[in-house]
Specification:
The complex is a heterodimer.
Chain A (H helix, E strand, L loop, with lengths): L3 E4 L2 E4 L5 E7 L6 E7 L6 E7 L5 E2 L8 E7 L2 E6 L8 E8 L8 E3 L3 E5 L1
Parallel strand pairs in A: 2-11
Antiparallel strand pairs in A: 1-3, 3-8, 4-5, 4-9, 5-6, 7-8, 9-10, 9-11
Chain B lengths: L1 E4 L3 E5 L4 E9 L4 E7 L6 E6 L3 E5 L2 E6 L4 E6 L8 E8 L4 E3 L3 E6 L1
Parallel strand pairs in B: 2-11
Antiparallel strand pairs in B: 1-3, 3-8, 4-5, 4-9, 6-7, 7-8, 9-10, 9-11
Chain lengths: 117, 108
């Protein structure tokens, strides 16, 4: 139980295009999903917190118009990187919060590696 | 805000014991997590400490001292597969802040 999937696992896009990343909780309902970004040899940086049916809460310094988050259901959240640039190349990881064993344990997806050329 | 410090890298020998320290300064505290992350993969949950003391889970143990803002992860009987980054994170319900991680290399 408590499986989170992400799609795609890898994506290469050209500068100026938009990319959508999906995060799904496969066997539980996730009231809250988080989106992180991780640059090489660095830790996870929280980008935004997404609650089903409401607007995402973005961390300071994260452009909400560039990183669009939609949490349309209790099992799906999407992150769209709009007008991507090479500096957006990173490892994007989502996690889902669900009361499986404990209310605080986040279950991480496998990540999406984005390369912008 | 949150400030979390860990050593950047550590090396230990297969079969040995290694302790990875984490210090933190936070404006609010709910609990402290430890995650393991292999290169190119997502983190996996190891432990969550809310109260002071040592919690043991197999080969891994985690310790917390809230008054000192200090935690450590203890790995016993090291195996080659334990080579990974270990992330200390502070938070709890709704939001977690990660430290920069400690890259552990286990050598034969």
């Amino acid at each position: 139980g408590a499986v989170v999937s992400q799609h795609p696992s890898r994506v290469i896009c050209k500068s100026g295009t938009s990319v959508k990343i999906e995060c799904r909780s496969l066997d539980f309902q996730a009231t809250t999903m988080f989106w992180y970004r991780q640059f090489p040899k660095q830790s996870l940086m929280l980008m935004a917190t997404s609650n089903e049916g409401s607007k995402a809460t973005y961390e300071q310094g994260v452009e909400k118009d560039k990183f669009l988050i939609n949490h349309a259901s209790l099992t799906l959240s999407t992150l769209t990187v709009t007008s991507a640039h090479p500096e957006d190349s990173s490892f994007y990881i989502c996690s889902a919060l669900g009361a499986i064993r404990t209310p605080y344990e986040q279950y991480f997806g496998p990540g999406t590696r984005l390369t912008v050329t | 805000g949150q400030n979390i410090d860990q050593p950047t890298e550590m090396t230990a020998t297969e079969g040995a014991i290694v302790q990875i320290n984490c210090t933190y300064q936070t404006s609010g505290f709910n609990g402290l997590f430890w995650y393991q992350q292999h290169a190119g993969e997502a983190p996996t949950f190891l432990s969550y400490n809310v109260l002071d003391g040592l919690e043991e889970k197999g080969r891994f143990s985690s310790f917390l001292s809230r008054s000192k803002g200090y935690s450590y992860l203890l790995l016993k009987e090291l195996q080659m597969k334990d080579s990974a980054s270990y992330l200390c994170a502070v938070g709890g319900y709704q939001k977690v802040t990660f430290g920069t991680g400690t890259k552990l290399q286990v050598i034969p």
